[in-house]
Each structure stands twice: as structure tokens, then as C-alpha cells.
From TrEMBL:
This is Amidase domain-containing protein. GO terms for molecular function: catalytic activity. Residues 27-475 form the Amidase domain. Belongs to the amidase family. Gene3D superfamilies: Amidase signature (AS) domain. PANTHER family: GLUTAMYL-TRNA(GLN) AMIDOTRANSFERASE SUBUNIT A, MITOCHONDRIAL (PTHR11895:SF7), TRANSAMIDASE (PTHR11895).
Length: 496
């Protein structure tokens, strides 16, 4: 098989070739490694190779829907026994941290038959919507190498869009599957709270806001992988009911006539690009042509208040994580990025009462979405406020750096999170990606569908949010959209 043939298949397609004995798993791995050697120096998507482990795995009698398919895991929460893991940080990279266990999501991917041959680039501890960690360097976007691939699953997105693998591991705590899917022209689904496992380290991450799944080129790959990995384990806090049919079967059926609300205004009052507006206008027309009802409306939620509550909980959670890392590794502040140190300092000063207040508000937002979905089947927004930023374009504002350093030295960095400054920080941090946090805070399933490319050839996704547990509705609609406006041919335009 030539690369020109390899790249035309999705994961299920490659697995079928292996099953039919038209190609061997080791040959697919060789193709993936060859493509990686060719383009990864340009993309910086794969940062920790696992070539020997992968070659050994090709000798096993693999089974499952993705048996023999080359795969990559994200270098964040997707631990692989005996493989160095950094979480995008010098603090773990410095000590060559090597876990002695597999994350449960990795176990389930392996039961599905995949062959992992590397770990992908991610921002430090996944705390940004771009992938530019000091520890590994920026991850470049295959559509234009001057642009970033997004975050925090940026390396996985870059590798899939760049033709290295058809599917790769990803995670989403504030948009980290959907943001890189938008920037890299991929399909990305964030499952409902509790749908996929977090063990053995955690029962859930950030009160269920963060979920693990994959980034891929086709809807059916996402559906089949969700079939393979969904369901509770010993660490799970609660069980979410699976649909009566497999997702892979559900997407073979056309969705019912849906009533879909759409909105293009930033929930935090920041600018939304013409590209984002055009993307949703075009998506709305496509939906109407398929027989769906599209209405401009939005839930009765104060978007800036939700963003503050998300940020406060996120900072507090990260403060705890950083303290755990310091204790485990003996790291000091010098081993973390300035932004990470500042976020942890803010979070450390959040009182228990403030934290519980924020968390209680999360429940109020969920109530408002439940009310909203009594009227509508889905909610449509741009996934991101613009196409992918250029590398280095999103950075800590120059005015913040000397203030942060000074306040950190005095142990008073949390002062920046008081008063009106916190609003400015929220808007600075989330202005590029103001639409995705809603689904994380409420635990709702959401997806980014690649339906728009601008005149410069850069993609921008359309985000759909569904009622809790209704991944079936999302995937069914996505399959209909994929058939009506196929995006696979777009990948042929990538030249690396």
C-alpha cells in the first residue's frame, strides 16, 4: 500500500483490510511511521515515541473493531505502562516520570485492537486552548504550519489531519477535543459526563467536566470507538445508561426532523470573526435543506458568569494538581510555566465557600439547559470564535508578565483575580474559545463538525450541544451532515 492509499481510509476501513488479510498490521504501522518521519519534524505532533512497544504489539493476535490500526495517545491522563509521560511539563519531563500502569481508557482502546506508537503534544497540564508548551515547543497546524493546532489535544489533531493516523486519543475539559477539531478540520465528540472511564487514578475529572474520547476523520470511527470504550468501571461515581443500539448502527439511520437553536454571539461579549458567523450561517442553510427547523435563540445563561465559575473551579483544581506534582517530583516553581504558576496561585486562594458557590452555579446552568432543551433538540454555535491562531499569537499579555512575576515573588499573585481584573483575564483567556465551556460545565455531550473552510484554506467547526446522554442524536446528525457535505476530500489539499 502507498501512502496515497493509506490516507484515504479511516480507522474502520484500515481494520477491514487487516481482517480481510489484504494487508498486515505491521505494514500499516510501517506506513504510519514513514509518514511520521516525513511530517512530524514539521508538525511537532508526536513528542514521545513508542515504536518498540508498537512493533511488539503487531505480533499479537489482535481483535476488536480497530484491530491493527495505528494510533496515538495524548500525553495527558492517558498513561501507558512503562512509557515516559510528561503532561506537557518540565516538572515531569525532568524526572522522566514513567507510570507503572495503564489508564483504563488506554486498556479499552487496546481491547478495540489499536496499535499505539507514540504520545502526542499537549499544553502544560492541558490548561490552554493552544499547544505551545515550553517543555516541547509549539504544535503546528497541517493546513498552515504558521498556525497552531489548538489545545489541549493539539498533537493528536495535528497527527490525524496530517495523515499520520486516522484516529487518536484526546480529552476535553473545556473544549480540548472540539477546539483542535475546529482548527484542524476534524470530527470531535465530547461525550456526556461519565460516558467514558477515568480510572484507575480518578473517579472523574473536574466534577465530570473533563471527558476522554478521540479525534478522527469520520463520524463512524468516533461512533465505533465510543461503542468500544463506553461504560463504568470500579472507579466510576455513577453509571450512565447506554443506548439500546450500538452507535455504529444508529448512524446508519437518518435522524428525525430536528428543531435546532443557533447563536453566533460570544457568551462573554468578545469578538466573533466573520468566518465563525459564515460557518454557522452555512451550516444552518445545510440543516434546513435536510429538512430540519433552525431558529436563532440562546439559553438564558449569563455567559460571563459561567466563564468565571468555570475559571475559578479550573484554577482551584489545577492548584491541587500542581501541589500533588510538586510533592511527587520535588519540583519547584522553576519547573512550571509562568502562566501555570499564576493559575495555581489564584486557585490556592479560593475559599471552600467560594468553591462550593461556583459548583452550585454549575447545577443552575444545567437546569437552564434542561429547560432550553424542552423547546429544542440541539443547540448550534461556532466551535471557536475564529480559525486557528498563529503560533505565538496567544500569549500572556505583556502587561501581565512583570506584574505576575512581582506578585508571585511577594506571594500575592491571587490579587490579580480580584475585582474587574478577573473579567479581563477571563476575556483574555477565553476570547478565542468562548463557546465550548458550556458543555463541560453542564456535562452535556457536544461535537465539532468540519463544515467550513475559509478563503485561505483554514477550517472552522460547527458545534452542536445535545441533552444529557444523547450522543446518539449528535452522531446521527453528524453522519447525515457528513453524507450531505463530505469533508474527507478536503484533506487532499494538505501539502506537507
Amino acid at each position: 500500500m502507498k501512502f496515497s492509499e493509506y490516507v484515504q481510509y479511516d480507522g474502520l476501513g484500515l481494520a477491514q483490510l487487516v481482517k480481510n488479510k489484504e494487508i498486515q498490521a505491521v505494514e500499516l504501522l510501517e506506513l504510519a511511521l514513514e509518514r511520521s518521519a516525513q511530517v512530524n519534524p514539521k508538525l511537532n505532533a508526536i513528542i514521545i515515541p513508542m515504536h518498540e512497544q508498537a512493533k511488539q504489539r503487531t505480533k499479537q493476535n489482535l481483535s476488536g473493531p480497530f484491530a491493527g490500526v495505528p494510533f496515538l495517545v495524548k500525553d495527558l491522563f492517558q498513561e501507558y505502562q512503562g512509557v515516559p509521560t510528561s503532561y506537557g511539563s518540565h516538572s515531569l519531563k525532568r524526572i522522566n516520570y514513567t507510570p507503572d500502569f495503564n489508564a483504563e481508557i488506554v486498556n479499552r482502546w487496546e481491547k478495540a485492537g489499536i496499535i499505539s506508537f507514540g504520545r502526542t503534544n499537549t499544553p502544560e497540564f492541558g490548561i490552554k486552548g493552544i499547544t505551545e508548551p515550553d517543555a516541547w515547543g509549539a504544535c503546528h497546524n497541517p493546513w498552515n504550519l504558521k498556525h497552531n493546532s489548538g489545545g489541549s489535544s493539539g498533537g493528536s489533531a495535528s497527527a490525524v489531519a496530517g495523515g499520520i493516523v486516522p484516529i487518536a486519543g484526546a480529552g476535553d475539559g473545556g473544549g480540548s477535543i472540539r477546539i483542535p477539531a475546529s482548527y484542524c478540520g476534524l470530527f470531535g465528540l465530547k461525550p456526556s459526563r461519565g460516558r467514558t472511564p477515568w480510572g484507575p487514578q480518578y473517579s472523574e475529572a473536574m466534577h465530570g467536566a473533563a471527558m476522554q474520547h478521540v479525534l478522527c476523520k469520520t463520524v463512524r470511527d468516533s461512533a465505533a470507538m465510543l461503542d468500544a470504550v463506553q461504560g463504568p468501571e470500579q472507579s466510576s461515581l455513577f453509571t450512565i445508561q447506554a443506548p439500546d443500539q450500538k452507535y455504529l448502527d444508529i448512524i446508519q439511520q437518518s435522524p428525525k426532523k430536528l428543531k435546532i437553536a443557533f447563536n453566533t454571539q460570544s457568551p462573554i461579549g468578545t469578538k466573533v470573526s466573520n468566518d465563525a458567523i459564515q460557518a454557522i450561517q452555512q451550516t444552518a442553510k445545510l440543516l434546513e435543506s435536510l429538512g430540519h427547523i433552525v431558529v436563532e435563540d440562546r439559553p438564558k445563561i449569563d455567559g460571563l458568569a459561567l466563564a468565571k465559575d468555570f475559571i475559578t473551579t479550573w484554577f482551584s483544581q489545577f492548584s491541587y494538581m500542581q501541589a500533588q506534582i510538586k510533592q511527587m517530583t520535588g519540583s519547584t516553581d522553576q519547573d512550571f510555566e509562568l502562566d501555570s504558576i499564576a493559575l495555581a496561585a489564584f486557585g490556592a486562594k479560593t475559599t471552600a465557600t467560594e468553591y462550593i458557590h461556583n459548583l452550585n452555579n454549575w447545577g443552575l446552568y444545567s437546569t437552564q439547559m434542561n429547560i432550553f432543551f424542552e423547546k429544542y433538540d440541539l443547540y448550534l454555535t461556532p466551535t471557536t470564535a475564529s480559525v486557528a491562531p498563529k503560533n505565538g499569537e496567544i500569549a500572556t499579555p505583556a502587561w501581565q508578565k512583570p506584574i505576575l512575576k512581582g506578585l508571585l515573588k511577594l506571594g500575592k499573585a491571587h490579587y490579580l483575580a480580584q475585582g474587574k481584573l478577573v473579567e479581563k483575564m477571563v476575556q483574555d483567556n477565553l476570547s478565542w474559545v468562548p463557546f465550548t465551556q458550556l458543555a463541560n460545565v453542564t456535562g452535556l455531550p457536544a461535537m465539532s463538525v468540519p463544515l467550513y473552510w475559509n478563503k485561505h484554506g483554514l477550517p472552522l467547526g460547527s458545534q452542536f450541544i445535545a441533552p444529557f446522554g444523547r450522543e446518539d442524536r449528535l452522531l446521527q446528525l453528524a453522519a447525515q451532515l457528513e453524507q450531505a457535505q463530505p469533508w474527507m476530500p478536503q484533506y487532499k489539499k494538505i501539502s506537507l
